[in-house]
Structures are given as structure tokens and as C-alpha cells.
């Protein structure tokens, strides 16, 4: 696998997943989250377990299957590129790095499939944790070899690592806020930046149209190039956010009845606590004590 393809192909996959997550959050989840049809976290977990089961036939885990297919192709291509002369002699260790990253995203896809078909057997939030783990391993793999690179290459990869760890942090937050619409959009936004900057990094470092390496006439030109790289990353972030807003507005235009509720969102844990039998019994006892005290005083 050439260095350029090693950046562009994964970047395109992350952009595709970012767009998919944006569409999912703005269409399938928008009306449900804004119409007030909310249940507690435990209730949703229980209902999903009853509906899906281990032999569910209600649709397919599309996201998990796509992850497995894409990562299988990536692992195969990386391993073949790492051993161009046969499996007895390793020549390109960097391709094994890509294969390792693909492996963890394949694990994330496998967890998605298992969560879909056997939700009662998988710990709650493991799909988000496995995705966060895959992003974390990817970020660490890029961090470990930054010291051996030129400063410009380091600068490009540091910005890429920032986008990768942003994806990891958002995925971890989703473990405790799995139904937060804001977190879903944050995951889509960070994935869009991750993928688009992945592709941009391939063009900056391994542009196939550039025959000879870039020559810098002075240190000022080199510093200006670094500034332009930072500006380009900022423009990628702005473009990803604008793309997110456009998709949200288009989906809301198709669903004009789904307006933002005026009342603030209730805290599900507090609602469960209010409806608990222990609290109702305690409130009843306090009411009885209050009535009896007034009766005695009268």
C-alpha cells in the first residue's frame, strides 16, 4: 500500500462514517428525541433486549458489517504491502501499523454486530467503549513515531492526532450519555475532521503529482508553510461544522413539525428516582405524619 493511499482511503472511510452518523442523528433520532418519547436508560435497554434478542431478524447491523468489510480489506492490503517479497521477509513496518489500527476498528465492528444480535450478553456501552479504544490506539500509533519525522510532518500528524483523540473523548462521553443528540453530532463532527484531515495529510506529505520534494528557499518560507497548514486545519473544522449544519437544516426542513421543545430536558435518573416505590412510600409517610400532627394540635 502506497503512503498516499494509506492516508486517503482511511480518510474517505472516516468521512463516510461521519456523514452517516450526521444523517442518523438528524433524521432517525431527531423526532424521537424532540417529541418527548423518552424513557429511562434502563427502560430503553430492557426494551431493546426484548425486541432484538439473540436471533433478531429486524434489519441488519449495517454499521458493524461495513466496519468489518472495510477493515478486512485494509488489513489484507496492509499485510500484503508489508511483505512484498513473501511472508518470510518484512520490509515495510509502517503497513503493519495500519493493519493494527484496522484490527481495532474491526473489533469495534464485531462489538456492534454482537450488540445488535445479542444485546443481553454484551455489557451496556461496550460498543462506544470499543470505538473509543480504536480511536485511542490509532492516536497512540501516530504519537509513537512522531520524533523520527521532519518538523513539518510532525506538525501535520499532531493536528491529526488532535482530531483522533477528539473522536476518542466523544466516544467515551457517549458511554454515560448514549441518547444525547449533542454527543451524536459531536462524534459526527470530530469524525468528519478526522477523515478530511487524513486525506489532506496525504496530499501534503505524499502528493502523487509532486515529482521532487519541495525545496524551501528560506526559513521564513518554511514557517509560512507551517502557518498555512494550521490555517488549513482550521478551515477543515469550519467546513465540517458547516456541513453538519446544512444536513441538520435539510433534515429539519423535511420534518417541519419536529420543533425544539420549550421545556428543558428532564433528567432521566431524577425521573426514575421520583417514580421509585421507596420515594413514594416515604412521601406518603411524611404526609400521614403531617396530617396526624395537625389533628393532635386541633
Automatic annotation (TrEMBL):
Principal cellular location given in the protein's record: membrane
Statement: the UniProt record of this protein carries the keyword Transmembrane: yes
Subcellular location: Membrane
InterPro entries recorded: DUF716, TMEM45
Pfam family of the protein (one): DUF716
Family affiliation: Belongs to the TMEM45 family.
Stated name of the protein: Transmembrane protein 45B
Source organism (scientific name): Allacma fusca
Amino acid at each position: 500500500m502506497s503512503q498516499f493511499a494509506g492516508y486517503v482511503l482511511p480518510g474517505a472511510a472516516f468521512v463516510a462514517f461521519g456523514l452517516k452518523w450526521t444523517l442518523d442523528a438528524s433524521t432517525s433520532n431527531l423526532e424521537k428525541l424532540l417529541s418527548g418519547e423518552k424513557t429511562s436508560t434502563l427502560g430503553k435497554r430492557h426494551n431493546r433486549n426484548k425486541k432484538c434478542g439473540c436471533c433478531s431478524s429486524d434489519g441488519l447491523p449495517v454499521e458493524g458489517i461495513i466496519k468489518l468489510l472495510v477493515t478486512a480489506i485494509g488489513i489484507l492490503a496492509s499485510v500484503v504491502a508489508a511483505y512484498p517479497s513473501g511472508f518470510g521477509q518484512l520490509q515495510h513496518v509502517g503497513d503493519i501499523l495500519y493493519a493494527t489500527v484496522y484490527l481495532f476498528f474491526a473489533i469495534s465492528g464485531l462489538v456492534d454486530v454482537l450488540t445488535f444480535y445479542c444485546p443481553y450478553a454484551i455489557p451496556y456501552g461496550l460498543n462506544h467503549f470499543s470505538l473509543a479504544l480504536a480511536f485511542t490506539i490509532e492516536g497512540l500509533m501516530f504519537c509513537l513515531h512522531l520524533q523520527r519525522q521532519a518538523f513539518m510532518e510532525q506538525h501535520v500528524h499532531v493536528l491529526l492526532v488532535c482530531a483522533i483523540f477528539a473522536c476518542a473523548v466523544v466516544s467515551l462521553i457517549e458511554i454515560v450519555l448514549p441518547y444525547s443528540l449533542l454527543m451524536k453530532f459531536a462524534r459526527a463532527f470530530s469524525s468528519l475532521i478526522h477523515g478530511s484531515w487524513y486525506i489532506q495529510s496525504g496530499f501534503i506529505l505524499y502528493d502523487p503529482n509532486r515529482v521532487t520534494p519541495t525545496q524551501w528557499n528560506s526559513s521564513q518560507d518554511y514557517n509560512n508553510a507551517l502557518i498555512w497548514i494550521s490555517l488549513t486545519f482550521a478551515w477543515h473544522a469550519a467546513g465540517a461544522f458547516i456541513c453538519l449544519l446544512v444536513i441538520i437544516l435539510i433534515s429539519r426542513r423535511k420534518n417541519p413539525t419536529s420543533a425544539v421543545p420549550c421545556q428543558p430536558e428532564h433528567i432521566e435518573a431524577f425521573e426514575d428516582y421520583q417514580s421509585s416505590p421507596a420515594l413514594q412510600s416515604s412521601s406518603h409517610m411524611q404526609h400521614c405524619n403531617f396530617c396526624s400532627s395537625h389533628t393532635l394540635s386541633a
